[in-house]
Amino acid sequence: DLQANKFAQQKTLLQHRPREYHLLTKYYVHESPAAIKPSKHYSYPLYGLPKDEAALSYEEAEKNPRLIRYRFGKQAILKGALNNYSVPVLAYFNREDLEAALMEGTVVARFQNGQKTKIFNVHRNNHIAYHPNLKPYAQERYWFFREVDGIKGYGKDADHKISVVPTATFAGNLADLGLGRLLLVRYKNNKGLMLGKIGVLADTGGAFDHNLYQLDYLAGVYPGRESFNRATKNLPDYVQVWLL
Fold first, then answer.
1. Residue 92: which H helix or E strand, with range?
2. pTM exceeds 0.90
3. Which residue, of 42, 163, 175, 200, is most buried by count of CB atoms within 10 Å of its CB?
4. For residues 225 and 244, what is the distance between their CA atoms, to the nearest angstrom?
């Protein structure tokens, strides 16, 4: 409750959270059209790891503050700050789809002109913290991605990430609750019946630092927020949580 109260003034859902209930947010794997080359409709690049650390392990990169990755915030990157650096572009998206990829951490890219579909997952970030009181478009945290062979959850680096299953995965505060914890969430549906979902705590994010009042449910793979919202409209905002 003390943690939730710190942000309740800016977040309406926290203001109405019942005592002894957790806030349940929902996330999804974003699927969207993409292009190999920039165009009028696909003008925002999704970057891979800069070349200056391509051969560095996570531990080696963390000790080198002069890397390209640490030099810019998201707003500068979107304006072209990386254009003159050796940074590979994995795909081009429109702004909405790029923001969805940055927010959700994974994007299923359906390339045009018969190119194969690829999955990209976050690799390393620019070390700017997620700001809980800023809207997603205004954030300065930026993620660099890499191609992966499936939907991924927690891992300190792309080489260490675990594979996860939609509808059976929760994101949360791994530091305090523990990776791999089996959770049961219970809630009443719109008919007043008590329902439950069991899942594994297998993902996290900057929003969960010092945050024990919230869980994030991986609802599935959707081509946009509208279809995601339709699929999750009957899920509640507040749930009871048990650690199994």
1. strand 89-93
2. no
3. 42
4. 31
